Fold this sequence. Notes:
The complex is a heterodimer. Chain A is mainly α. Helices cover 76% and strands 1% of the residues of chain A. In chain A, helix 2 runs parallel beside helix 7, helix 2 packs antiparallel against helix 10 and helix 11 (241-254) packs across helix 12. In chain B, the strands form 2 sheets. A 6-stranded mixed beta sheet of chain B has the order 6-7-8-3-9-10, sandwiched between helices. In chain B, strand 4 (57-62) and strand 5 form a beta hairpin. Chain B: GO terms for molecular function: ATP binding; ATP hydrolysis activity; L-isoleucine transmembrane transporter activity; L-phenylalanine transmembrane transporter activity; L-valine transmembrane transporter activity.
Amino acid sequence: xxxxxxxxxxxxxxxxxxxxxxxxxxxxxxxxxxxxxxxxxxxxxxxxxxxxxxxxxxxxxxxxxxxxxxxxxxxxxxxxxxxxxxxxxxxxxxxxxxxxxxxxxxxxxxxxxxxxxxxxxxxxxxxxxxxxxxxxxxxxxxxxxxxxxxxxxxxxxxxxxxxxxxxxxxxxxxxxxxxxxxxxxxxxxxxxxxxxxxxxxxxxxxxxxxxxxxxxxxxxxxxxxxxxxxxxxxxxxxxxxxxxxxxxxxxxxxxxxxxxxxxxxxxxxxxxxxxxxxxxxxxxxxxxxxxxxxxxxxxxxxxxxxxxxxxxxxxxxxxxxxxxxxxxxxxxxxxxxxxxxx
Amino acid sequence: xxxxxxxxxxxxxxxxxxxxxxxxxxxxxxxxxxxxxxxxxxxxxxxxxxxxxxxxxxxxxxxxxxxxxxxxxxxxxxxxxxxxxxxxxxxxxxxxxxxxxxxxxxxxxxxxxxxxxxxxxxxxxxxxxxxxxxxxxxxxxxxxxxxxxxxxxxxxxxxxxxxxxxxxxxxxxxxxxxxxxxxxxxxxxxxxxxxxxxxxxxxxxxxxxxxxxxxxxxxxxxxxxxxxxxxxxxxxxxxxxxxxxxxxxxxxxxx
Lengths: 342, 255
């Protein structure tokens, strides 16, 4: 069964199910929740590229998510720019800020990097909250337009919006898949594995780390811009540190440093919290222990856990096969010897 | 031209002088060894050459080029490879996957190649894979290419680390305790492998504590004690050197 659960099959299954999902349900609320889940996944993929594949845990990504969202919001609502121009510009702004921040933040490592970016994320939140002339502060930005349509395609219904977000998500997954399976991806993993070793085999760690950082903030910004255009209203809370810990939970539950982890983790946690909605604030009582147990027993999340079990089973099988082969050869030899003796 | 040399190389950590005024030349195409008691500054010396620490004073010159101020990755590009005392392999990946990245520095494809999956990337991936198989064969691990690095023995890990260093196409490799923590028969195997590297034209420089092995395979030995070079020469010269014997066995050499 684990053989069926490899990453290609999971992604194919996900694509099929997500394509037909709006056709089998007429409940727009479910489509709404699913669209939001897709939007989060894009951000979680960004976090995964940096924290999972390169080993740098950034806690500033809620901030970059908010920068993407506010970029789009301000450019459309206040500067009256056309939607797609504002969309592209908001991504560029996020990437540029990511570059500046990365240059400084990446001088630190490990816990220090996490703490530095945590503070930075909080500063971004504070700037958004207090800079009222630009961001409208706690009142938030209202009336962000839905994406402009292309010819006959319009993005005004929940369904059409769902497919737009799904398009971007699949694009992100494709990009992630290709990066992780390329020589660049191998360099990133080498950095995560041991930065010293990566340096001695000639990998420019500084440049690679900066590239990953900018790319992952771009993903966060894309996620934020899509969020703003979908929800149409944004407040400073989307940049709050609580958001980054939500994203981190999705990533850890699914499997940090795995390609399908963000998909599985985000879907699972979001639907689980929907199901537990009746319990209100008590649902954390269920979530907390579950998450703790998961981290203790499966530090690489559900996907990592399944892969490990699968590999162990394969190794066992291989050993058994090898054993059988040996005994076969021995009996074969035995037979030959018998012939000789005969 | 001298292949690789250090001139007055000194490294101070606060008031502690880890490497003091060391002049050393590496002989091309030979096995060079650095020995010395624990804490003599051998690993620091390696770290200075490979660019991990920048020296307090002095120079490192490789093929006539001053590499003292170059970062580690640039030094690796010039053809200087190294291994570490502890072998940092990625346990969840196969041996082959661990080694493939070793040839990355000889490739040019970037992130755009990755996203667009260009023909350059495909070609270079193939090139890296071939290189990895070639060096795995060289170190005698081709049969383990598909095995997870986590399941290797200590000796196999050492060999994989050698393979990773060789995948960078080096002219010289610095091996930090290559035979640390492996049994005597395996040590012989590793010594043979080092000889094989030299036969292939790669200069070897190693730190080691296993004297028997060093005396047998090294062409030239430098002895460090308290960061200073106390002797340099052929194995038989070192074996009979009074200062070296005193440094190892104790005594009042400096009194």
